[in-house]
TrEMBL record:
The keyword Calcium does not apply. The chain crosses the membrane at residues 16-35, 47-70, 77-101, 107-129, 141-161, 181-200. It comes from the Bacteria. Keywords: Membrane, Transmembrane, Transmembrane helix. Pfam families: DUF1405. InterPro entries: DUF1405 (IPR009845). This is DUF1405 domain-containing protein.
Length: 205
């Protein structure tokens, strides 16, 4: 496992690898905003910035990758990109699986993918990729505790607005009636994400 991790790390600064990730994240962001189009049109304009969580995250990560490609540092952008990409990557996967389990009440159906569509599989893979790349570049980030705190406050404010103003990402129908429970999980995930990157940052120092 360590060998695989070290092998992947060796590619992180290669130009072709960075450009590939930039293209993937950029196209994923465009598709993500398109995915949110109906919710964006239905949401109050004053809360629009809080609606498209995943594509906003991948947009920030795209910016980080572009800056990294040109050897530029932007600690706050890096921190926001890292925390939001990891958090919403994990969140989306959890919601898809949670929704599938709540629908069929059967782990067997989930394992055999009877309750998950090909679109769900695509979303799971892409969002796991978001979370993975956020961790992948952890040794390359330049952000400090100040930027980490600002980013942590941002994701918690986002949670507050999402679940008090009902502008959180639309949930699978099978769990749409327990959004208050989802809200608690989301806040817990935000706190976990902050603590994770705080620990990774401290270990890097």
């Amino acid at each position: 496992m360590q060998y695989i991790w070290n092998s992947i790390q060796s590619y992180l600064e290669k130009r072709w690898f960075l450009i590939s990730l930039i293209v993937i994240n950029f196209l994923g962001s465009i598709y993500g905003f398109y995915w949110y189009k109906n919710q964006l049109m239905a949401s109050p304009k004053k809360w629009i910035i809080f609606v498209p969580d995943s594509p906003t995250s991948s947009t920030f990560f795209t910016l980080f990758l572009i800056l990294f490609l040109f050897k530029k540092k932007a600690p706050l952008i890096e921190a926001i990109a890292a925390l939001t990409s990891f958090k919403y990557g994990i969140w989306a996967v959890a919601m898809i699986i949670w929704g599938a389990l709540a629908k069929d009440h059967s782990l067997i159906h989930l394992i055999t993918i009877q309750s998950i569509t090909w679109i769900d599989v695509m979303l799971i893979i892409s969002h796991l990729g978001m979370a993975f790349e956020a961790i992948l570049y952890v040794k390359k980030y330049s952000f400090g505790i100040t930027e980490l705190l600002i980013s942590g406050v941002w994701i918690i404010i986002n949670d507050f607005v999402d679940y008090t103003q009902d502008v959180h990402p639309w949930l699978p129908e099978s769990i749409s009636q327990i959004d208050h429970v989802v809200g608690k999980y989301t806040l817990a995930l935000s706190l976990f994400t902050f603590l994770l990157f705080f620990t990774l940052r401290r270990n890097k120092a």
